[in-house]
Amino acid sequence: MSILILGLLIFLGGHSVRIFAEGWRKATIERMGAKNWKAAYSVVSLVGLVLIIWGYGIARREPVVLWTSPAWSPHLTGVLTLIAFILFPAAHAPGNHFKSIVKHPMTAGVGLWALAHLFVSATLHAVVLFGAFLVWAVFDYAAARRRDRAEGVVYPGGTLSRDVMPVVAGVVLWVAFVFFLHGWLIGVKPFV
Predict the structure, then answer these.
(1) Does the CA dihedral 177-141-40-87 come out positive or negative?
(2) Where is the chain membrane-spanning (predicted)?
(3) Which H/E stretch holds residue 71?
(4) Which residues does residue 123 pair with via DSSP β-bridges, in sequence order?
(5) Is the pLDDT of residue 36 over 90?
(6) What is the pTM of this model?
(7) Backbone phi, then psi, for 183, in 5-degree steps?
(8) Using a CB cutoff of 8 Å and minimum separation of 24, what contacts does 114-117 make?
(9) Could you tell me what percent of the chain has a pLDDT over 70?
(10) What are the two backbone dihedrals, phi and then psi, of residue 181, each rounded to the nearest 5 degrees?
């Protein structure tokens, strides 16, 4: 479990710099340059992600079961993760309703993804992993909205035609991941 926690601290810690040290972040980017900052940020993220995957794999060998998930929980998780998968591309597609309503669809999607997995993941290591991502998403979303208000950011209204791309991309990615990749990469087939 310690490797998983270390990975979470590194990965989510790196992703929390804007939440807790925006001034330091801006000064560091100015000092080292945007490309060098992105390179260092990517290395920190990759190290954290590798440790999370490795630590989660180790923790899965001897799981500590905390409760029994209800029979309906995989279906709720499926619906919530589908919405999360739509929010991910919505963060990068201009002029869609998701961005105009949610404001930060990537962070909201991560939070929804994490919450969804807490319904079906009844082991200690899963609660640590998904709980950490959920807490991070809540703090990051709140910090991003505070920055929006301080900077007077206004998100333009979306159009239905611009909603199509995130919905189609999200559904296709969700289907591919849930029915093919999740079992292969994670070792769990969600609807089996």
Answers:
(1) positive
(2) 37-59, 71-90, 110-143, 164-186
(3) none
(4) 65
(5) yes
(6) 0.91
(7) -65, -40
(8) 115/80, 116/76, 116/77, 116/80, 116/81, 116/84, 117/77, 117/81
(9) 99
(10) -80, -35
